[in-house]
Design a protein that fits this description.
CATH topology of the largest domain in chain B: Rossmann fold
CATH architecture of the largest domain in chain B: 3-Layer(aba) Sandwich
Distance between the termini of chain B: 54 Å
Number of helices of chain B: 19
Low-confidence stretches of chain A: none
Number of domains of chain A: 3
Oligomer: heterodimer
Number of helices of chain A: 17
Structural class of chain A: mainly alpha
Radius of gyration of chain B: 24 Å
Largest sheet of chain B: 7 strands, parallel
Number of strands of chain B: 15
CATH superfamily of the largest domain in chain B: P-loop containing nucleotide triphosphate hydrolases
Helix content of chain B: 40-55%
Strand order of the largest sheet of chain B: 3-4-2-5-6-1-7
Mean pLDDT of chain A: 89
Shape of chain B: globular
CATH class of the largest domain in chain B: Alpha Beta
Strand content of chain B: 5-15%
Bound molecules: adenosine-5'-diphosphate, zinc ion
Mean pLDDT of chain B: 89
Radius of gyration of chain A: 23 Å
Order of helices and strands of chain A: HHHHEEHHHHHHHHHHHHH
Strand order of the largest sheet of chain A: 1-2
Structural class of chain B: alpha/beta
Largest sheet of chain A: 2 strands, antiparallel
Largest interface: A-B, 39 and 28 residues
Distance between the termini of chain A: 27 Å
């Protein structure tokens, strides 16, 4: 549920960031700050899962939480109360589906996968009954083009393929709990049948449309993860997965900087000249790149000893407040360098966690 | 060009699958093919769009269709594409600028281009149109050009200039409701006094007209529940606010669990709206509680009952909305529900359509501070946001300023001193518009009160007589719901598990 997600956000960002940081993560804002926040504070699973979330819906939910004494907001700071902490633990236990979310990895490909899937199911279900006139449930021309081509490529084996997709889908749906499976299937359209809209499902189940979206996204992310793990088990569905690119999460401008930096081997000073941007901006880009790319080499920007010193401090202090950290370090170390090491540190920690988990 | 009725019929059969013309279609198409301008007044649902879609494919060159109904234009393009007619596109202000640019860049690829009236302000677009050979220019909802009509759009006043600029293509002006006064105005405003008039009566002989009075709003809902329990038929219920739509749908659904009742209004997601619309067409949904945002492009022929929970703002809107009932010719009913002081709502809505004096004044000040600068989209959005204007209100202001030369060639040429001179004229114009709208509302209110036959009164200002009703006439002529026997579909609402639903969609186990 959106409220649970917000509580979780507050829990991880408390004392460090203001509520709007949660909003930006949920909507997947393409800014260096948001991308870093979501990684630093382990909120990447929620990154971009609700791109259409309205500011006022977010504020409404938050103010409900404040009224219910779960969350306290003072100026730019926010905290979880004990009641809120208990509620969060309880809700995370109940809504286990939330743990399948992996927005950072799948928020874009997931959406595309879902649209391709529902449009294809609608089309195949109709065409197999000889109905060629139906109103497509997806309007995005890019998706329509893809589905048309996919259909054209497999026209001759449509019926057999459709049966096999049914089998593949069923495996996934059976893994979900009944409630979630029902939401997903209600959204499918087929021959002489239009699926339920998000708002209809929300009204029937007495939840918000955002909750319906979270249920859907988590199911989709779950499917994508399974396909990533054993693609050979899903010969048809894996073809619906769009290709992902590593630079996908960078802002457009940072991507330009990346090109100059890595392909053309330009220095910061040269990039500043070529792109006519401020030094701070280019540095922001580089930090962004360091967060997106776990292999990014930061050694051109500082000596080994400086890096070690910063790293050591990061391992010992509980906060990610830059100002505080900077004050603990020798004068000559810049914010830029600290942020770069934060990115390295982040990758180190995630790698450790990955190895630790089964 | 030498095209016979047979040729036209063949093309129609091939692309649209229709065997015969409907009333008016052949006459209008033939005139257009001969190169004559036509003013066509045909009631909703009779197939106005075919009157230009077919010539678009028979004529050489491009057909441009101006329509203010964006969702309708999107639907039509989709439907044409579904029929295998690919060289059509639309362009409107709701598209993102990149998409719009892409379409404009490829304009020469299309046979048919739908556009919304604001696009007529877009010089780049108009210049590109001029490079093409526009052979037919269609003005849909042509009554919007007239200040006497029920729905006036300032952008339509630009049409005259656009037509001249495009070197006078053949013009087809279409509307479902236009009084003789409005018809005359359309021809004058388009500067085409020689247009051939093809006017078809709009009375519907299978729709019964009724009005009921109540004391409280809640009585209305109780009455609806009672009617739907007795007559579980496909129905539309019109409301003037989103809140009421949602509230009524929830309450009725609670009381009538055998029916599927939903709501639809302009505040919903595009995707949600599409689903509801298709479910209704597909008989998955029985009753839609809606605002006037619903219905455009609804092409469902078995709607039996149209209820106006809130009164419409004028007779024209009423005729259009009630006319969605009984397209298949079966006996259908239109019911208007009235409680005292219901007219306050449309009165309020009317004043919402125009900006108020303070907003215009502030707009003038903001513009004069930016003297000499071009008006860019971001600036317009900023204005609308700061002054709390909707796009119709801002369109009105912009057009007025252009008329008085305060904006020209999309640049601000307004100085503070000019403003003083023109503001009385603009106030005058606004108060005339307000009075006009109120007059229209009064017309409807007096229709509610008539003692004589409702049919006689309703169509009076549009046509001289009307067809003999097929089933019943109206409550004044003695109709009560006891006399109504609509076919009732008994439907079992199936409670499926997700496994069963999935099987059905994937045709498993059949
Ligand atoms: N000659 C025809 N024969 C059969 N159906 C037709 C014919 N012309 C139009 N239609 C159908 O009538 C319906 C209404 O047409 P439309 O152009 O949307 O009406 P209008 O714009 O007048 O409200 C559409 O479903 C259309 O397919
Ligand atoms: Zn009568």
């Amino acid at each position: 549920m959106l409220k649970t997600v917000i509580l979780d956000g507050v829990a991880r960002l408390e004392g460090e960031r203001s509520p709007s940081a949660i909003y930006h993560i949920l909507t997947g804002k393409r800014s260096a700050q948001t991308i870093q926040d979501s990684k630093l504070f382990h909120l990447h699973q929620y990154f971009g899962v609700l791109p259409k979330l309205r500011q006022y819906s977010f504020k409404n939910q938050l103010s409900d939480l404040i009224k219910g004494n779960d969350v306290v907001v003072e100026g730019d700071d926010m905290f979880l109360t004990d009641v809120g902490r208990k509620k969060l633990a309880d809700q995370l236990n109940r809504h286990t589906y939330l743990s399948a979310l992996n927005g950072f990895l799948y928020h874009e490909s997931g959406r595309e996968f879902w649209l391709r899937l529902i449009l294809f199911i609608q089309a195949a279900s109709n065409i197999l009954k000889d109905e060629h006139h139906f109103f497509p449930v997806v309007e995005d021309p890019k998706i329509i083009r893809w589905v048309k081509r996919f259909y054209a490529d497999h026209r001759s084996e449509l019926s057999a393929m459709f049966n096999e997709i049914y089998d593949e889908m069923k495996v996934f749906l059976q893994e979900l709990d009944e409630y979630q499976a029902d939401i997903i299937v209600s959204r499918f359209s087929g021959y002489h049948h239009y699926g339920k809209s998000k708002e209809q499902i929300a009204n029937n189940k007495n939840m918000n449309t955002e909750d319906v979206e979270l249920y859907t996204q988590s199911a989709v992310h779950f499917i994508l993860r399974e396909i990533d793990k054993t693609p050979s088990a899903y010969p048809w569905l894996k073809q619906f997965v769009p290709e992902r690119r590593a630079e996908g999460l960078l802002t457009h401008s940072a991507r330009e900087t990346w090109k100059l930096l890595s392909q053309e081997k330009k220095s910061i000073e040269e990039i500043i000249r070529v792109r006519r941007l401020k030094k701070g901006t280019i540095q922001d880009h580089i930090v962004e790149i360091a967060f997106a790319d776990s292999e990014f080499d930061i050694s051109p920007f500082m000596g080994k000893d400086d890096e070690k010193q910063i790293l050591h401090l990061l391992q010992t202090v509980p906060t990610r407040r830059l100002k505080y950290i900077k004050n603990q370090l020798p004068e000559h170390l810049s914010y830029f360098q600290i942020r770069l090491v934060m990115a390295r540190y982040h990758h180190l920690v995630s790698r450790k966690e990955e190895m630790a988990s089964p | 060009m030498n095209i016979t009725v047979d040729n036209i019929k063949q093309t129609m059969k091939r692309y649209f699958g229709y065997e015969d013309f409907r009333k008016g279609q052949k006459e209008i198409i033939l005139e257009l093919m001969k190169g004559n301008d036509v003013l066509g007044i045909l009631p909703t649902g009779t197939g106005k769009s075919l009157c230009y879609q077919l010539p678009a494919f028979l004529l050489e060159g491009v057909t441009v269709v101006v329509s203010p109904l964006i969702s309708l234009m999107i639907d039509q393009v989709k439907q044409l594409k579904m029929k295998g007619i690919k060289k059509v596109t639309y362009i409107n202000s709701l598209m993102n600028p990149e998409e719009r640019k892409r379409v404009i860049r490829h304009l020469s690829h299309y046979k048919m281009i739908y556009c919304s009236p604001e696009m007529l302000q877009n010089r780049y677009f108009i210049e590109r149109l001029r490079e093409l050979n526009v052979s037919l220019f269609v003005v849909d909802e042509a009554h919007c050009i007239s200040q006497w009509g029920y729905e006036f759009r300032t952008d339509y006043l630009r049409l005259k200039h656009v037509l001249a600029w495009l070197e006078h293509p053949v013009v087809l002006a279409l509307s479902a409701t236009a009084t003789p006064e409005v018809q005359k105005d359309i021809m004058e405003q388009l500067n085409r006094p020689q247009m051939l008039k093809k006017i078809y009566p709009m009375d519907r002989e299978n729709i019964v007209l009724t009005v009921e009075h109540y004391r409280k709003q809640n009585d209305k809902l109780n009455r609806i529940a009672e009617l739907l329990r007795r007559f579980p038929v496909p129905a539309m219920i019109y409301f003037s606010s989103k809140k009421w739509c949602e509230h009524a749908a929830a309450r009725l659904q609670e009381e009538l669990s055998d029916l599927s009742i939903v709501y639809y209004h302009g505040g919903m997601d595009k995707e949600d709206r599409l689903y509801i619309q298709q479910q209704f067409m597909n008989d998955q949904v029985d009753v839609v509680c809606c605002t006037s945002a619903f219905g455009m492009g609804i092409d469902k022929d078995n709607i039996r009952l149209v209820i106006h929970f809130h009164i419409p703002a004028n007779v024209e809107s009423y005729i259009q909305e009630a006319g969605r009932a009984g397209r298949d010719g079966e006996a259908s009913v239109s019911l208007i529900q009235y409680t005292p002081s219901d007219e306050d709502i449309p009165l309020h809505l009317i004043s919402d359509e125009l900006p108020d004096e303070k907003q215009i004044e502030s707009a003038a000040m903001m513009l004069s501070e930016n003297y000499g600068k071009p008006i860019e989209e971001s600036f317009e959005l900023h204005m609308m946001e700061t002054l709390q204007l909707n796009d119709i209100q801002w369109g009105f202001i912009k057009y007025q300023f252009e008329c008085y030369g305060l904006i020209s060639e999309n640049r601000i040429t307004l100085k503070k001193s000019d403003w003083k001179a023109v503001c009385p004229d603009i106030w005058d114009f606004m108060s005339t518009r307000m009075k006009q709208k109120q007059r229209k509302l009064n017309e409807l209110l007096s229709y509610l009160e008539v003692e004589e036959c409702r049919r006689k009164r309703l169509y009076k200002s549009f046509q001289n007589d009307f067809k003999e009703p097929l089933y019943h006439c109206c409550d004044r002529c003695g109709f009560t719901f006891d006399q109504w026997n609509p076919p009732v579909r008994t439907k079992v609402i199936k409670k499926y598990t997700w496994e069963q639903k999935l099987k059905e969609i994937f045709h498993q186990g059949e």
